[in-house]
Design a protein that fits this description.
membrane; mainly alpha; transmembrane; ZIP; 84 residues; zinc ion transmembrane transporter activity; flat
Length: 84
């Protein structure tokens, strides 16, 4: 429970940093510099921690559906980044 609270506080701190970065205007570490690292972190977590568990699953259909969901999430991040 304490570790979950710690990660939740990390998420709040990250959101606060993003809001401060957005208000900073033309600083080099604003949203244009922060978003690629954030997206890369999500993709890294998805591929390194979740993908090996999917490959151990004996049901290939379920693993394929979850892999497609992961790719759909990455595609949505790309679409949002392009449309923004």
């Amino acid at each position: 429970l304490r570790l979950q609270l710690l990660t939740a506080l990390g998420a709040v701190a990250g959101a606060a940093c993003a809001l401060v970065a957005e208000g900073a205007g033309s600083a080099p570490w604003t949203a244009a510099g922060v978003l690629p690292f954030t997206a890369g972190g999500f993709i890294y977590l998805g591929t390194v921690s979740i993908l090996p568990e999917l490959l151990r699953d004996p049901a290939p259909r379920q693993a394929l559906l979850q892999l497609l969901a992961l790719l759909a999430g990455v595609s949505m991040m790309v679409a949002i980044a392009c449309c923004e």
